[in-house]
Amino acid sequence: MTSLRINGARLNDTLQSTSSQWGAIPDSPGMCRLSLSQADKLARDWLIGECEALGCATKVDQMGNIFAVRPGKAPDRKPIGMGSHMDTQPAGGRYDGILGVQAALEALRTLHERGAETHCPVALIDWTNEEGARFPGAMMASGVWSGRGAAPLAACHATRDSDGVAMRDALARAGYLGETACDWRENGLQAHFELHIEQGPVLEEKGLAVGVVTGVQGMKWFEVRVTGEEGHSGTTPMTKRSDALATASRLITAVNDAARSSPEMPLGGVATVGVIKCDTSSQATIPAGVTFIIDVRARNDDAVSSLSTDIFTRFDSVMRAERDAGSKTAYAVARTWGLPESKFHPDCIAAVRGAAVDEVGAEQVDEMMSRAGHDSAWTSRVVPTGMIFVPSKGGISHNPHEYTSPEHCALGGQVLLQAVLKYDELCSKGTIPAS
Amino acid sequence: MTSLRINGARLNDTLQSTSSQWGAIPDSPGMCRLSLSQADKLARDWLIGECEALGCATKVDQMGNIFAVRPGKAPDRKPIGMGSHMDTQPAGGRYDGILGVQAALEALRTLHERGAETHCPVALIDWTNEEGARFPGAMMASGVWSGRGAAPLAACHATRDSDGVAMRDALARAGYLGETACDWRENGLQAHFELHIEQGPVLEEKGLAVGVVTGVQGMKWFEVRVTGEEGHSGTTPMTKRSDALATASRLITAVNDAARSSPEMPLGGVATVGVIKCDTSSQATIPAGVTFIIDVRARNDDAVSSLSTDIFTRFDSVMRAERDAGSKTAYAVARTWGLPESKFHPDCIAAVRGAAVDEVGAEQVDEMMSRAGHDSAWTSRVVPTGMIFVPSKGGISHNPHEYTSPEHCALGGQVLLQAVLKYDELCSKGTIPAS
């Protein structure tokens, strides 16, 4: 089994051709494959067809997560999962998430064509709405599956996209409102492995080929609602205004100032406002309502708390100064959710490290923490989990120019398959008991 | 003719009942009657029916402006216009614009039922898209009619609302893409009178009942486009970000700071950002593009220039600091348009003052400048123009709680009719020649 090698050319061909076909941004290398959009639905339909042609049994759960399971020899074992996501940001790239699912498919193809028999079943998983770009709430469906996510099933089903479409309706319309329980206790895994691009500059800067991911940094999101008073832009004196957008701009500036004052990564944190919505949109009206979302991330939960505290302390100063200037605007945190720091399982970390070192040697492999959230962060709460990173050119991601070389994509796929096989071998020996 | 009195109760009844019927915001005193919306179309259809029942000939021009003309005795005279608008802000009130049109209708009703004969024809005018709330560009259609507006006919027809609907299509769908030339040289007026609520606090604070408007302050709008670079909110260090929303927030703060530093009104100016649009809307993506509109107003064109210069000087400092922080964001002014200061005609001002003093006595009347833009600002460029202000409670406008008492509404309607009749008398005597 250790001799099994994936077909790197086939992996890269499939990655590129399916990206071109479903969700490519015209005249750009980028992708817009929002969760449960028509492009995502067609990519999902194709994926299920491919997996079933390899003899896998496919099931879709209540959140639209796809599980394609290749049987193993042991009747008492749950599948070893190889999961990631196929949805993208509105202007994302071809590798974030997509590579992990395509590599899992390539692993299944390799096992199938070589007639390999594993001890545990092996499953490909496509997690729904990982980006949270269409339905607010990143890593939403793996969060539901783990029972530890930001919101339970019913709340996620009720989440609406910017056009007001509820997620449950989007699932039903796409044909992905499945009946399998979205619950790790009912539809479980022995372990979860995920290949992903790094989305940061560390591997490239250090000249490394593979990152053995030991965990995911902590993250927290705050939805902030600023309220003021509508008024005429020409007749309302500056001292009698309660301008929600002016106050929101000062608060967003404070978020940016706080993050810039935080120590540089990897020690410090980052904070971003990527979503802003003004209730009104008229050049002659003073805005009375603005909503924005703050994204705070740092290496551990303490650092997240520390940066968050700095942000809200700065908010207090902004609001005091606004009051002094005659403004009666107010703000409230409408919703807080997050992803506490994650620690991956030593068995999975060891399997990934072993597979990576076998492939490229120890000098091109190092352990690292993920700065981005991943479905694996949620799976790690309930089943042994590990991740493999391959380099991102320039560290760029969530951008059409996100790029990982074909060689690194193929390498990642090979390490994914071998990490799963190493883990499976320990299961077959009984070193790792049934979960 | 000086004995003619409008029916104030009928004016107030019609004002309230039509507002309740077409465009009322549920459970609110406010209005959302966006230009050429279904509510606006129904209000227009009703208005034309009312005017035709009074024996007026109605015509609709290429911008949807409605002219309802009651004939006069002199064949060589163009109509004396009584114009305003029936569209509102998305969360506006029942008086801004609507009062002026309803008072004009009440004046026509009064002339009709008393069988009054005027020298000049008298016209009611409903100007299209005065608010610029649906199709960007306030006082759009009166601007086209005057030939001095921000944009000519074809450009206005091509203007799109936030749903991408072109104004020409909206006009056609509502049945208001008329064939009459939208051009004062082809469809002219002898003069233009407009009754409007003050939208500011001056009359109320001074205990006055009528403002004789002598002109409109200068205004300028700037559409600003900020560009940056998309990136992942978790993996991109703060020093490597070009965050368009962070920069835009700093620029909007600078707009607010500049206006707060300007002298208090009436000497100083005001500046507002009422429109902001972020290209992307994902909590995990650093925004790469943001557009916002700055609205600058001050008592004259020099004061507008001075405040604008201060704003853009502050922008230079913001951009320098952003570069020092590692950001490569940039901004450009994508479009600049405006309304230079307007001066109304002495004959019209005198007619308004005379009518107001007759009604309430000199101690309750004063001259003042308008701080808001009005269709009269454009008509004043090409025909003699005057305006009447009545008090706004608390100076509040562009807000559902905008309010003017029934007594002040009726008073305004009476002054409008009598100002028109005074002006008409000077025409009949030849003191004012044909335009």
Automatic annotation (TrEMBL), chains A, B:
Keywords: Hydrolase. Residues 215-317 form the Peptidase M20 dimerisation domain. GO terms for molecular function: hydrolase activity, acting on carbon-nitrogen (but not peptide) bonds, in linear amidines. Signal peptide: none annotated. InterPro entries: Amidase_Cbmase, Bact_exopeptidase_dim_dom, Peptidase_M20, Peptidase_M20_dimer. The keyword Hydrolase applies. It comes from the Eukaryota. PANTHER family: ALLANTOATE DEIMINASE-RELATED, PEPTIDASE M20 DIMERISATION DOMAIN-CONTAINING PROTEIN. Belongs to the peptidase M20A family. This is Peptidase M20 dimerisation domain-containing protein. It comes from Lineolata rhizophorae.
